[in-house]
Write the structure tokens for this entry.
Amino acid sequence: MLRDITLGQYYPVDSPVHRLDPRVKILLTMAFIVCVFLVGSPLGYVPIVAYLALASHLARLPYKMMLKALRPLRILLVFTFVLNLFFGTGQTELIRVGFIRITQEGLLNAVHFSLRLIFLVTGSSILTLTTAPVTLTDGLERLASPLKIIRFPAHEMAMMMTIALRFIPTLAEEADKIMKAQSARGADFTTGSLRQRARALIPLLVPLFVSAFRRAGDLAMAMESRCYRGGEGRTRLNVLRIRRGDWLAMGSMVLLFAVVLLMKRYV
Amino acid sequence: MPITLEKVSHTYQAGSPFQATALHEIDLTIEDGELLALIGHTGSGKSTLAQHLNGLLQPTSGRVLLDGQDINRKDHNKRALRFQVGLVFQYPEYQLFEETVAKDIGFGPRNMGLSQQEVDDRVREAMDMLGLPYDEIAEKSPFELSGGQMRRVALAGVLAMRPRVLVLDEPTAGLDPRARDFLLNDVSRLHAGGTTVVMISHSMDDVARLATRVAVLAKGSLNMVGTPREVFSQVERLGAMGLDVPQASKLRWMLAKEGLALPECYLLDDLADALAAALKGGAPDAP
């Protein structure tokens, strides 16, 4: 029943993009987003498309996976397109049927904003597709660690995220088991009024919470018995290092910026 | 009310990259009144098979028949089926949730739509059957009990539905020897009282003590079915699957390798008798 929960959308293959330092990947994604916003006309997206195609090719990601990232967005995309198309304010009229009026500027805007959305999402999906959740939190922790000066608990936040991510599948499995066990005693989770169904959740939630607290206690004990005392002075097994590939990736982003800015000016 | 499995296969997450075949074309009939033990290595599909018996899981292909009726047909009443085939999961004490023991045991009967009086009667009956003192613990929170008692409360919660078939998934896992003994006696008594029992177990000695028939699962396929005597005589074949045999079978097999042949037996008492007889008779190869 709940077995099909997949966590995040990490696509586990080995590639130069997968091996990049997570910090670099996070920063590059941010830079990419800025880049997409800098583009001024539909034609300006050509280098963006080229960059995305290159990145996904290097990351050995199937196009299907990237398109999947767009699915939750499809309604928003249609809205963006339609609103811009019909309510454009330009002068050059293309079609006029009754009060419906489509202008050239409207059409261009519709395409422009839709493309912007599409590239924002596919671009950031490359980050989540190629970075395991735990690596991602690791990268976030390191990026946020300068904030420790203003007492931002970067390490604790990252540890909490890691633990939460680690236990989602465990709890899902547990919930599945309890649900089945109560169904075996005739519990009915799927029919009845809203009130009845809410009540039917009690036999699921009580044991689930009890076991979550037990697991939390066990985990705290296990961490303490290995002398965990927070991030202070803690060293790591896998030290993040900027390598040649990371420099190359950063270089490619600078190049993208340059091309986008040049095109904005001269095309 | 026999349960028949016809070429039952089950694949988890079929069609995804994580697809895994848990059962492969199982043909098996569970006869009335028998105590069938399901044994097999971890991941051999025992629990998956158990969940097919009351329709919690549906076969990817094949059919499960109860009294000749396909239980997965749309018009078959799934809930009624679950009251007839009671399934007790592994570590069932983690499924307790009510404020009192009596209420928790009454959960199944309440779902059956019985009157409060009938529910109370059944709670008492189930607790009596398992030797749980009603007056002492019925109004206690189930979370105050010991592990062994919690397990029996969970078992009582299924028994209170008066199932005709009882399916137990590793009922003694994690219990201390005393609690284990109690529980096995309970199972034995239920079986003697006419309930059909299907028991998954890792303990071959438990199986030897209780089972009337043994089915061996290996990698999702039915490898052997037979009486305990037939199955446990295959020491080497079971060993190749990473399975143990009862201590008596093992000892008999080791003695046979040393040249002392004894008649088939899998219970320690029987082995002792056989050994005594062989030694008294002055078997030529005896040490």
Notes: Chain B touches chain A through 26 residues (CB under 8 Å). Chain B has two domains: 3-228, 246-287.
